[in-house]
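User:
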Amino acid sequence: MRKILTREEKNKKDTRNKLIIGVILILVLIISTAGYAFFSRSEEEETKKKFKDTEFILTESGLWYFKLNEGEFSTQFTPEDTQNISVQIFRNLYSYSGKPLFFAGESPGKQEIARNVINFLSRYPQDACINDYESLCKEDSPIKNCSQDNIIILQEENETEISQEENCIFISAPYAEQIRASDAFLFKILGLA
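Assistant: Predicted structure:
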């Protein structure tokens, strides 16, 4: 059997229960606020990176957006992600400015490069054939050469290598690494590598 409580005992019990619930709610509010502050700060750190005074911001599309004096760019990787790729070229973005650019070969890196340099070219990049690389040619592509034209040759190879021969840039990489290699090329011509 339950003990019969007086009105005073019942009021005391109710007051105690309300106090306990109030303290629990205050603790939940304090802990959730502190947790939000801590985790939102770490999420911000994950979506922003700084490299050589350039701020990289991870967008909802998964691309790293950044601004340089020359313009706005977006890449799938940051310069830190491509530091182990050797880029042996002697060109910069200005060497492509106002001139046509040609591609030889198929690679997902082609779109990565085109998206970032299109605003500096005289027209949208197009496919081309190069005499020594007929296997990379598409039908009806114009024949170009490295001594007169800006050409980026994208090849699937076992090793990642980026080199230059006259006006031709050779980007060779395994298929899974081609976008990262293309970003390494972009960072080099932008002065970030």
